[in-house]
Specification:
By secondary structure, the protein is α/β, with parallel strands linked by helices. Helix content is about 40%, strand content about 10%. The chain has helices spanning about 5-30, 45-50, 70-75, 80-85, 120-130, 150-160, 190-195, 210-225, 260-265, 270-280, 285-310; strands spanning about 60-65, 110, 140-145, 165-175, 175, 180, 200-205, 230-235. Strand 3 (about 140-145), helix 6 (about 150-160) and strand 4 (about 165-175) form a beta-alpha-beta unit. Helix 1 (about 5-30) crosses helix 11 (about 285-310) and helix 4 (about 80-85) packs across helix 11 (about 285-310). The longest helix is centred in the first third of the chain and has 24 residues, at about 5-30. The protein binds thiamine diphosphate. The site of thiamine diphosphate (TPP) has 15 residues, from strand 5.
C-alpha cells in the first residue's frame, strides 16, 4: 500500500511537533510550574502519529498516562494541553485533570486513565456503543506492555471478539513498566497474544518505530473495524527513551543499561522517518526549517497562554463533576 505524499507529510509534521512539545515540557519541568506528573513519549511518536493518521475526527481514542502524543496526533489543541499541565481553567480538562487525565470530546479523545489498563474496558465499551448506534466509527485503545499484564485486557479482548466490536487494540510495547523489564513480568514475548491471535481477524506485531508501517497496519485494522469485521490487535515494538515520569534529572539511574537506551536512540522514529521523507522528496530541507520555526513559535505561544490563564477558583469546585 502506497501512502500518499500528503499523509506522509502530515505524519512527519505530527511526529516532529510531538517531539518538540515533549522536549519543551521536559526542559521546563523542574521549574515546578506544571503541577502534574508528566510521562513523556519521546521515542514512541510513530505510533500515535501513524495510528491517528488513519482515523477520522469522530473516531475515538482511549489513552493512558503517557497521553500527550495521542492527544496531539488526534488533533488536540496544543494551548489547551499545555494549560492542562499547568492546571489552568483553560486546559482541555478545565484544569481538573493534569497530564494523566486529558479529555477532549471535540476531537474524539474520550479519555485518559492513570489506572494502568483502565482505558481498555472503556474503549471496548465505546466500541459497543458505536456498534449499537449502527455508526461506522472506530474505537482505538492505546496501552502499554504493563497494562497487558492486567486481566482486564483478556476480558475486553474476548468480549470485543465475541461481539465483533469496532475496536483496535494498540499495544505500545516499550519493554519497561516503570523499572520492571517485560522479562520479569511475562513468561514469553507477548505470550498473551498467542492464544488470542488465531481467533482475531487481524493481529500483528510490528516495528513501532517505523511510522509508515504503523500507518499501513493501522489502516488495515481500522478499515476492518469500520466495515463491521471486528477487532484487531497490533503490538508495536518501541522504546521509551526518557525516564518513566518527570524529567531526566528525576529518573533513577541504573535500572536500564545505557547501551540499551543508546541502541534504541539510534532507531529514533523521528530521525528515521525524516530521513526517508527527505530521500523520497516528500519534504525538503526548506520546509523542515519552516516547520521547526512554526512549531517553536506555536509552543512559545502555548506556554504563554497557559501561564497567563487563570487557575480554577473555589467557585468551580463543584462544576464538571457530572455531565449536564
Ligand atoms: C492498576 C495500576 N497499577 C499500578 C500503577 C502504577 N503504575 C503507573 S505507570 C505504571 C507502568 C505502566 O507501564 P506500561 O503500561 O507499560 O506503560 P508505560 O509507562 O511503559 O508507557 C505503573 C505500574 C497504576 N497507575 N495503576
Amino acid at each position: 500500500m502506497n501512502i500518499v505524499a500528503k499523509t506522509r507529510r502530515d505524519m512527519l509534521f505530527s511526529m516532529l511537533r510531538i517531539r518538540r512539545v515533549q522536549e519543551r515540557i521536559e526542559a521546563d519541568y523542574m521549574q515546578d510550574r506544571m503541577k502534574t506528573p508528566v510521562h513523556l513519549c519521546v521515542g514512541q511518536e510513530a505510533i500515535a502519529a501513524g495510528v491517528c493518521a488513519t482515523l477520522r475526527r469522530d473516531d475515538s481514542i482511549q489513552s493512558n498516562h503517557r497521553s500527550h502524543g495521542h492527544y496531539l496526533a488526534k488533533g488536540g489543541n496544543l494551548p489547551a494541553l499545555i494549560a492542562e499541565l499547568h492546571c489552568r481553567s483553560t486546559g482541555c480538562s478545565k484544569g481538573y485533570g493534569g497530564s494523566m487525565h486529558v479529555v477532549d470530546v471535540s476531537v474524539g479523545h474520550l479519555g485518559t486513565s492513570s489506572i494502568v489498563g483502565g482505558g481498555i474496558p472503556i474503549g471496548t465499551g465505546i466500541g459497543l456503543a458505536f456498534q449499537m448506534q449502527k455508526s461506522d466509527k472506530v474505537s482505538v485503545i492505546f496501552f502499554g506492555d504493563g497494562a497487558a499484564d492486567e486481566g482486564v485486557l483478556y476480558e475486553s479482548l474476548n468480549y470485543a471478539m465475541l461481539k465483533k466490536l469496532p475496536v483496535v487494540f494498540v499495544l505500545e510495547d516499550n519493554h519497561w513498566a516503570v523499572c520492571s523489564p517485560r522479562s520479569t513480568r511475562q513468561v514469553a514475548d507477548n505470550v498473551f497474544l498467542k492464544g488470542a491471535a488465531k481467533d482475531l481477524l487481524f493481529a500483528a506485531k510490528i516495528d513501532g518505530n517505523d511510522a509508515a508501517l504503523v500507518y499501513q497496519t493501522a489502516k488495515k485494522a481500522v478499515d476492518r473495524a469500520r466495515k463491521g469485521q471486528g477487532p484487531s490487535f497490533i503490538v508495536c515494538d518501541t522504546y521509551r527513551i526518557l525516564g518513566h515520569a518527570g524529567c531526566k534529572a528525576q529518573d533513577p539511574a541504573g535500572y536500564r543499561d545505557t547501551c540499551e537506551i543508546d541502541a534504541w536512540a539510534c532507531k529514533c522514529p523521528v530521525d528515521t522517518f525524516r530521513a526517508a521523507c527527505l530521500a523520497d522528496g516528500t519534504v525538503d530541507q526548506a520546509l523542515l526549517d519552516e516547520w521547526e520555526r512554526d512549531i517553536a513559535s506555536e509552543i512559545e505561544a502555548a506556554f504563554r497562554f497557559a501561564l497567563e490563564s487563570p487557575l480554577p477558583g473555589p467557585q468551580d469546585l463543584h462544576k464538571h463533576l457530572f455531565s449536564e
